[in-house]
Fold these 2 entries.
Entry 1:
Amino acid sequence: MADYIYTMEIRLTPDQLKGVNLVQEVARAAGITLYLTGGAIRDIISGFTIRDLDFTVQGNPLKLQKDFERAGAQLAGHDEDFRTLFLVLPGNVRAEIGMAHTELYEKVGKAPVITPASIQEDLRRRDFTVNAMALSLNEGSRGLLLDPFNGVADIEAKLLRILHNYSFVEDPSRLIRATRFAARFHWPMEERTQQRYDAAKENKYIEHISRSAVGHEITQLAHEDDPLNVIRALEKEDWLKVLHPHWSAAKVDTNGLGLLMKTRQQMVDLGYTVDPSPAVMHFLTARLSEKDISDLRRQIPRKDLIESWRDIEDHAKELAKRLTGKEAATPSRTWNLLSGARPEMILFLAVTARNQSVAQKIKNFLTKWRDVQKRIPLPEMTELLITPALPEYPKIARDVFMLLLDGRLRSRTETLKFLKPFAPPPPPPPPPPRRGRGLKAAAALAPVAPGKKSEVAKGKGKGAVAVAPVAAVVGPVPTAPAKAKPKASPKPEPKAAKAKNKPAKRAPKPGGKHPAKPKLKPKLKPKKAAHKKAKARKR
Ligand code: ATP
């Protein structure tokens, strides 16, 4: 039997997995039964990108709003009728918590009667078999997959299949959804589904689509990996004008959108968690009038998307302005400024910046400046015992990076000269071995003076000291506003400079004109310390 919890854990991003745990914790504390459902399960099993997390609870999730907020989630909207909470979980993870319910369609074109129900009943009101599965996240049954319509088999067959013959009549938004999924996954509709689809289209059932379904489908476009492909498919089927009568593929800024998706991928590869949806909406509607855009926005249920789409140009302008000012006068300052900026803004500005210098700075930030990390002499730092074990290591490493960025450490020799004063004293030698075999062991453990290669550092033996990874040196790719200010300057320690093996008198200050006084202090002056210890031993 497939282990779906294991599959879920390896397929979700770390942030999504944390999101699942957060929701699970809140539901458990509230004593409410919870399932991961819909598209999330489909994508976990099929291997496609998991775009968002759909949860279903047996109970009313609106009552849990405060609990979710306390646990770190942000409310992005809610739907009273369907009792659904739209959340943004830490790490920009989109989630929906819906109430398990049945939908009774009494008349074509009329909203269904919603009744709270069990998860089994809820799965019966879903659109396609591949979306009608639920994974239990409850104690006792955790990992149990409910798949009453054999969705797993349809995923394997790559087919879209409705659950019953009246599916498109009951909810015509499923026609749009069928087109969207077929375009995204390149999965055709199963034969009978296709017949029902054609009949529903011919009978113009789409005229009965609800306003809220239109809003939901507009929102979904913003999260497509290839939105242009989907827009074209919707246009071909005549569904795009259902979402807005003036919308067409011709209203899309295709160049901008193409560049946006490319840059987004580049940022994802660099480790950013970036939500491109506001920028996608900007380009998808680039040639629509202001009024049409406002109409579209009004229908979107997630207020976070409405706001971020509305404000994206203004925020990008602000960032562009800062990038032309003093704050970005040097590469290190620009790095700090962009590291603190929202990835969404960097992405949007990378595509839309008209000012050459702004565009170049963003380009350098995403490409050239990353290579500067490779010039940080990690093996030598390890030999000097400047490793992540040192509390001041992050600052030292960051300062070296900043100085390299600004071209103020131009050679390896200069870099090592800067680093040497930060080398901690070597550890004290072990007590002398008593006999025979002990000798060998002691030799292996003997400390090595900074600058000399130990057997361990040379990579010999089992416990070879790994060279600190580059990410550990300049920190992870920033995804949250960093507090680093360009003022913080790396300076070698002054007392060490007075010691016999005098290092560089003055170290350059990143982002600044003048070399500045060193701030970081190695705790002990290596030679004096060794001398003291030797004396003590003699005594
Ligand atoms: P996506 O990857 O586009 O987010 P999704 O399947 O998760 O796909 P959502 O619109 O987020 O799509 O809906 C979540 C789930 O809710 C679906 O998988 C489906 O089970 C159910 N659902 C959504 N819309 C409908 C609908 N119109 N009719 C029936 N079930 C629906």
Entry 2:
Amino acid sequence: MERTSTRAYDILVESLAVRGVDAGAVEERLRSQRIETPSWGYGNSGTRFKVFPQPGVPRDPFEKLADASQVHRLTGICPSVAVHIPWDRVDDYGELREYANSLGMKVGAVNPNLFQEEEYRLGSVCNPDEGIRRKATGHLLECVEVAKEVGSNILSLWFADGTNYPGQDSFAERRHRMLDCLSEAYGAMPRDMRMLLEYKFYEPAFYHTDLSDWGTALTMCQKLGERAEVLVDLGHHAQGVNVEHIVALLLDEGRLGGFHFNNRKYGDDDLIVGSINPFELFLIYVELVEAEESTRIDYMIDQAHNIEPKIEAMILSVTNLQEAYAKALLVDQAALDEARHSGDVLGAHRTLLDAYATDVRPLCAKVREDLGASADPVSAFRESGYLEKVVNERGEGVGAGWG
Ligand code: RM4
Ligand code: MN
Ligand code: MN
């Protein structure tokens, strides 16, 4: 590290020691943090109004992996990439797997796509038409096979299913239809594969969504079996919902399977993680710090960038996640317990604020360097010439999904 940042690091470690925090232990936890990035975050995407294409975006899943490997090279904690089928469909998944390995990467969660075909106007696994449900189930089964071929053990499901008008369909019947289809897919999964169910309260359906919240997802998981768990996407709640509370509840039920990190101001905005509400992100990590030691949780980013440079945006999301985690690791648990038990409301609250207000950037930079990555990954990416190189090679690229 440069002299100035070494100094900042030394001062931080010293001040943490005064607070009784062992920086070495915090660094160890930070070195084992893992964040999966989404293949669709590297391609062109936009809103329903306009997609602003960016030169140099990937033309195929191989190039998406190459871009993701840049994020891993510079942050040291992002060795896997989630894929979306059919956006990332290839003839030979073994080849995709090997290419990922050759980059020091692996393919992570496999995400089926059940929202872009004509038949799905009234839903996929909840559709009133049995033939259409069969097609949807067939795609889920295909994705179980894809996961096996790419060496992944996560099937990550999000459904656009829902209704637009009161009376359109029966809530309960739709729920039973979903359960039937998901049971079949669950039954086809190998023993080490997990199914993650992601809820979202509205959009694209505007009256009701079949998996609308953590409770609907949780009860579905409980019916399916132990290896079905809930996935929390930070942009999928109504305004004001206490997401850290949901995280604590799902952990307590042993059913928190994973995250789709992003941030939002209004709806499912898919903005850079921690850009709008970094305090919420910190509070979520506070809930996770203890529990994650005994639970498998898959931490993934789900972002679609409209105007920002994609690889830089992904790096910034990762460093924001690293900082939120670092701050959560600084919470003085003993002081917190003591304050809680003695009814010291503001003492407990201030214990969190002390951790949150700590500038952990020098510590995170040091951890990244120890991992062979970069103290300042965004600047290092800008200086690397990678973007210029791919702009030359790839030209305009193609859309990520519906972009
Ligand atoms: C949804 C949800 C899913 C993502 C799709 C593209 O809103 O967040 O995770 O795969 O968008
Ligand atoms: Mn998501
Ligand atoms: Mn979303």
